[in-house]
Design goal:
By secondary structure, this protein is of the alpha/beta class. Helix content is 41%, strand content 20%. The chain has helices spanning 11-23, 37-44, 60-68, 84-92, 105-120, 155-166, 174-181, 190-206, and strands at 3-7, 27-30, 48-51, 75-79, 97-100, 129-132, 135-138, 143-146, 149-152, 214-216, 220-222.
């Protein structure tokens, strides 16, 4: 389990971020002592830091630079300050990414997962996410998130959506999808595929994703 340290003096936002990250299987910790964030970092030993710029005592740039003196742990700034100079300052002090407020928690979670994969080079699918136009597919529990809504998928629905999201913008033939769905216990024919596509579309429509999967007649399916 990866631990995320949230350096945010807005208690409501900090709590909201913590709850959302914990839903995705992360451990979180918040900063209690803004006078010495480096000491808290050393004590709590997080795998990734999310930090605001505007903080009591010293700003986030100061603390990012301080953490960089002792660690290469990934750091993402989340701030209402959106000038080019702020972003340049963040990068120059050692940040890995910069997101401006207001922001999408779904996008932040996707960025966190991508950064953790690059940093710690884990190849399994634990807590791995695929993001596609605001739709996030969780490879761990076969669920998707869209606009604060979570949807559970069956094994076949998950496999269909996975292959389409991985090749977004490319038309995937029915034959290829049937090969993906086939396993030792189930023979997938043309009718079975149609049933699974229709069920998946109905589920997606229920969370506001109507026409998310587009049919290309005689060719297959695509997410545009």
């Amino acid at each position: 389990m990866y631990k995320i340290m949230i350096v945010e003096d807005d208690n409501s936002l900090c709590k909201n971020m913590s709850e959302r990250f914990e839903k995705w299987g992360f451990e979180t910790c918040a900063v209690d002592n803004f006078e010495n964030i480096s000491a808290e970092f050393t004590q709590k030993k997080p795998n990734l830091v999310i930090m605001d710029v505007n903080l009591p005592y010293f700003d986030g740039f100061y603390w990012c630079n301080s953490i960089r003196e002792i660690s290469k742990v990934p750091i993402i700034f989340v701030s209402s300050r959106d000038t080019n100079m702020d972003i340049i300052m963040a990068m120059n002090t050692g940040a890995d990414d910069y997101i401006t407020k207001p922001f999408s928690m779904d996008i932040l979670i996707a960025k966190v997962n991508a950064l953790l994969r690059r940093t710690y080079s884990y190849s399994d699918e634990t807590s791995e996410l695929i993001e596609c136009d605001g739709v996030i597919l969780n490879l761990t529990d076969s669920s998707i998130f869209y606009k604060e809504q979570k949807l559970q998928l069956t094994k076949h629905e998950f496999k269909v959506l996975l292959v389409l999201m991985k090749d977004k913008g490319k038309v995937i033939s029915r034959e290829r999808i049937m090969r993906v769905l086939w396993d030792d216990d189930n023979f997938i024919n043309d009718n079975t595929l149609t049933v699974n596509i229709n069920r998946l579309r109905m589920k997606l429509k229920g969370i506001g994703l109507e026409d998310y999967i587009v049919t290309k007649k005689g060719l297959g399916y695509v997410i545009l």
